[in-house]
Amino acid sequence: MKIIKFLSKAINGFRLRKKRNHRFNIKTARKVEATLQSIKAREEAKAGNPFPFMLAYLRKIGPDVFEELILNIIEDSNLFVRRNLRYTGDGGIDGIFWLGFGCKILIQAKRYSDDIKASHVTDLCEKVKQKKCDFGIFVHTGKTGPTSKRVIEEHQNVVFISGSRLTDFLTGEIDMRAFLENHMLTINK
Fold it and tell me: Which domains does the chain have, with CATH numbers?
């Protein structure tokens, strides 16, 4: 096991030791990962596209499990994650993680079935500024409307992970660390 991932799991395990619901959701999220892999294998064996089946499955899981699923994937990329201790009243920030030394990233995960709310995207953009973070990631299962896209273009400090990019992350097709490092290079040009 990679050292940063080990430290992240150990520290979060200690912080969440009295949070039975969090620990249950983290464990359930691991089962969701396995189910997504089996959906992918099944559809690829039939020469089909696994994306719509995976997205439909993700839209059915609980929002707290979805949040933990995303944080697990980030942690599995050998990134240090600080999980929130609450699901409600967290100001929309589900976790914070670091890319290298000093690059602080906020994460918000939303399990939607319809269009995402532009106000949620705006809130994340503003929290990135308030907390003096390098940028934020808005992960969602919904549809990204034109207003939300405009917010991202204006602020340039938040990136969306959704659709096929999301399922590629969840199945290991795209490495979170490499994606983020590439994104950082793009916005710093």
Answer: 3-187 (3.40.1350.10)
Taking the model in full, what pTM does it have?
0.91
In DSSP notation, the chain reads --HHHHHHHHHHHHHTTT-HHHHHHHHHHHHHHHHHHHHHHHHHHTT---HHHHHHHHTTS-HHHHHHHHHHHHHHTT-EEEE-S-SSSSTT--EEEEETTTEEEEEEEE--SSBPPHHHHHHHHHHHHHTT-SEEEEEESSB--HHHHHHHHHH-SEEEE-HHHHHHHHTTSS-HHHHHHHHHHHHT-
Give the residue from 36, 40, 58 showing the smallest Cα distance to 49: 40
Query: Which is it for the CA torsion 151, 153, 158, 163, positive or negative?
Result: positive
Confidence of residue 109 (pLDDT cuts 50, 70, 90): very high
Identify which of 15, 41, 109, 39 has the alpha carbon closest to the alpha carbon of residue 69: 109
Mean pLDDT of all residues in 149-169: 90
Mean pLDDT across the stretch 142-169?
91
